[in-house]
Write a structure and sequence with these properties.
The chain has 6 helices and 25 strands. The protein is an alpha+beta fold. The protein folds into 2 domains: about 140 residues, Immunoglobulin-like (Sandwich); about 250 residues, Rossmann fold, CATH 3.40.50.1460. Strands 1, 2, 3, 4, 6 and 10 form a 6-stranded antiparallel sheet that branches. The protein starts with 12 loop residues before the first strand and ends with a strand.
Length: about 425
């Protein structure tokens, strides 16, 4: 069976429960050695007794650990105990190896307790929600097995409430999702992400469906993207407008000049200055709109590595350290949250069939980012939530990805009061 390495060493600890005042009882023929109980719990008390705390067979990925506890009666002689933890698909996740339990000849312990820990929160085990199994082997023979459930603490972001917020005619949305490029590697789940983002814009953020510009794959050419931002939107918006913009696709660097670009469907990273949409120009076009506020969400990276993949956009090019978070914004009306910083790659979340950043972005919209529980999600809360969760989730995948905020979040006045939308469960 496949083995999974665990980041923390799993240790077995044994403690003795004392009977009367003696550590051992001496007898010529000890009583039968047997298991008295097995308990699955969320914790273990400190001290020599090692009592299970909060017994349960149901856990979440936010629980720190799972404790498997055994109590034996009349322990005598020498025995080997081994714990095996099995994932929901039946694979061996970790094993304690043989642990030696010994009592001197002619003596026995009336009670003998031993337990084992499976760390869960922020560990690799959290990547395997479902029905787990713990097996305990005594002297090479299966002694006992128990099942327990680890439930994902994450939202199913594809299931939205039937009723949404009331549409606000002043709200607009620009959604760009490019999965299948003309001449570049595909971006996994980008069209799927764009489609669900549209539903969120309508039901969670109150954007009327007729006010949403939706550009997917071949419709997201450079001329079309620029045409909507430079010509169409300025003619259809006013000072009360709030614009929500989402982009899922490739970004690319101009290595010589150090500029970052969004890559349209027909973009070519070899000639990115001519075929791409410079991120600085993109922000400037948004800033020129005479509207109340512009929110930008970019699920892209700008290192030259394919988004949600490991291929280079241009053969032979080295990843570039382009800091899109350092691009200056000349209007306090525009705030932007991006999937990565520096030379990082934006990753996918295959289990959820979404981009990693987009998954947590939408989870935040649903209310998980509402740290102060005031019923609103602010831009500051959304940044903190996505940064914390994307960073942790990417590390579980063995990579580094940290969302960034533009302009620098400490330069944004009263960022906690920049409301993105109401919480909708």
């Amino acid at each position: 069976m496949k083995r999974f390495s665990l980041s923390l060493a799993l240790l077995v600890f044994s403690f003795t429960l004392f009977a009367c005042s003696a550590t051992f009882k001496e007898v010529q023929k000890p009583p039968p050695f047997k298991m008295q109980q097995m308990t699955i719990a969320k914790g273990i008390s400190k001290g020599v007794t090692g009592t299970p705390m909060d017994p349960s067979t149901t856990f979440t990925t936010e629980d720190p650990e799972v404790i498997a506890y055994l109590k034996f009666n009349n322990m005598h002689g020498s025995h080997k105990l081994k714990w095996d933890w099995h994932t929901p698909d039946g694979n061996l996740f970790s094993s304690s190896g043989d642990y030696q339990m010994t009592v001197p000849d002619g003596k026995y312990r009336k009670e003998y307790t031993v337990w084992h820990r499976l760390p869960v929160k922020d560990e690799k085990s959290a990547n395997f929600p479902g029905n787990w199994q713990i097996k305990a082997y005594l002297d090479g023979q299966l002694l006992v097995s128990r099942e327990f459930t680890v439930e994902s603490n994450e939202l199913d972001i594809d299931k939205l409430p039937q009723a949404g917020v009331k549409p606000n005619p002043a709200n607009w949305g620009l959604i760009i999702g490019i999965e299948d490029y003309a001449n570049l590697p595909s971006v996994d789940y980008a069209k799927r992400d764009a489609a669900i983002v549209k539903d969120y814009f309508v039901k969670i953020l109150g954007v009327p469906e007729e006010n949403i510009i939706f550009l997917a794959d071949g419709k997201a050419t450079k001329s079309t993207m620029e045409g909507y931002l430079k010509n169409y939107l300025p003619k259809n918006m006013d000072k009360d407008t709030v614009l929500y913009t989402y982009f899922a696709g490739h970004g690319a660097p101009d290595v010589e000049k150090g500029d970052a670009y969004l890559v349209p469907y027909d973009g070519d990273p070899r000639f990115i200055a001519q075929t791409g949409y410079k991120i600085k120009d993109f922000y400037e076009d948004l800033a020129k709109l005479e509207i109340q506020r512009s929110f930008v969400f970019l699920d892209a990276c700008f290192s030259g590595t394919a988004a949600r993949g490991d291929k280079m956009l241009i053969a032979g090019i080295r990843p570039a350290l382009i800091h899109v978070e350092d691009v200056p914004l000349y209007s306090d009306k525009v705030v932007s949250l991006s999937a990565t910083k520096g030379g990082q790659v934006s990753n996918s979340y295959p289990d959820k069939k979404h981009g990693l950043f987009t998954y947590y972005l939408l989870s935040g919209f649903r209310g998980l980012a509402d740290a102060d529980k005031d019923g609103w999600v602010s831009m500051g809360e959304l940044y903190n939530y996505t940064k914390d969760n994307v960073t942790k989730a990417s590390r579980r995948q063995g990579v580094e990805q940290t969302p960034s905020f533009t302009p620098a979040i400490d330069l944004v006045k009263d960022v906690e009061n920049i409301k993105v939308g109401r919480v909708m469960k």
